[in-house]
Amino acid sequence: MKLTNNYFHKFVLYYNYENLFIVYERSSAMATSKIPHATAKRLPIYYRYLHFLADAGKQRVSSTELADAVKVDSATIRRDFSYFGALGKRGYGYEVESLLAFFRKTLKQDKLTNVALIGVGNLGHALLNYNFHQSNNVRISAAFDINEDITGTIQSGVPIYHMNDMKEQLTVQQIEIIILTVPSNVAQEVTNELVEVGIKGILNFTPLRITVPNSVRVQNVDLTNELQTLIYFLDKFGKDDETPAE
Fold first, then answer.
1. Which residue in 121, 189, 191, 213 has the fewest CB atoms around it within 10 Å?
2. What is the CATH number of the domain that holds 89?
3. SS3 state at 106
């Protein structure tokens, strides 16, 4: 199985925590509350700005202020918050500290989540170097590849194991979430092995849409598709026109 990832060449990645949160969503309490996917994806955005407000000493924020800051309309914010009950008061807004505490617990910011990286090619190396430094609760704690030039080494503080040790290490380290950056021709094969060991979530950077049982959550991140979508909107609407926001 060749895991060297040449597909993305030397793509320098700035990674968004939102995608990893969506992977974890299925196994969290929110999954039973029927929180819409779009709402779940916005929660880390709210959390980051609330953290900024708290650091600045802000005690209260309105949905309008929040909307201006995160570029989400206030009606959408109120609807998102309504899924979790009464988080604010009409005419008063939201208490920053209490709302921050709520989202800290909801987003599992109060405990460390270890994830594993499968495939240490160019994209994998970029992820190792980044290793979620902007997040206090997520880190890559193990990486796997078949390249014997890098297995048995430590890169950016992360040990790189051989693929032969993957199942054992994932079990010993109790890792349930995977970042998958292998070539597409081996993606399903690797996924099948991950399912066997009980993985609950996969952040899939491969072009292949992998098949998993319902008990496993997959979040697909197709960098090529995202770039093509951006190019399409720029071509269709132009840089100075109003383009639809996601």
1. 213
2. 1.10.10.10
3. helix
Angle between helices 17-25 and 37-55 (to 10 degrees): 130
Q: Which helix (H) or strand (E) holds 20?
A: helix 17-25
Residue 60 within any structural domain of the chain: yes
- CB count, 10 Å around CB of 243? 13
pLDDT digits (tens, 9 = 90+) for 161-203: 999 999 999 999 999 999 999 999 999 999 999 999 999 999 9
124 is in an annotated binding site: yes
Average pLDDT score over residue span 232-237: 84
Same domain, 86 and 118: no
Q: What is the pLDDT of residue 17?
A: 47
137 labeled part of a ligand binding site:
no
The answer to whether 74 and 136 are in contact (CB under 8 A) is no
Q: Is 121 annotated as a binding residue?
A: yes
Task: Please tell me the predicted confidence (pLDDT) of residue 19.
Answer: 54
Q: Is 57 annotated as belonging to a binding site?
A: no
203 is in an annotated binding site: no
Q: Is residue 45 part of a domain?
A: yes
Which of 90, 106, 122 is a domain's end point? 106
Distance, CA of 196 to CA of 15 (rounded, Å): 28
| Spatial separation of the C-alpha atoms in residues 184 and 201, rounded to whole Å | 18
Query: Token digits for 160?
Result: 């790189």
State whether 101 and 148 are in the same domain: no
119 is in an annotated binding site: yes
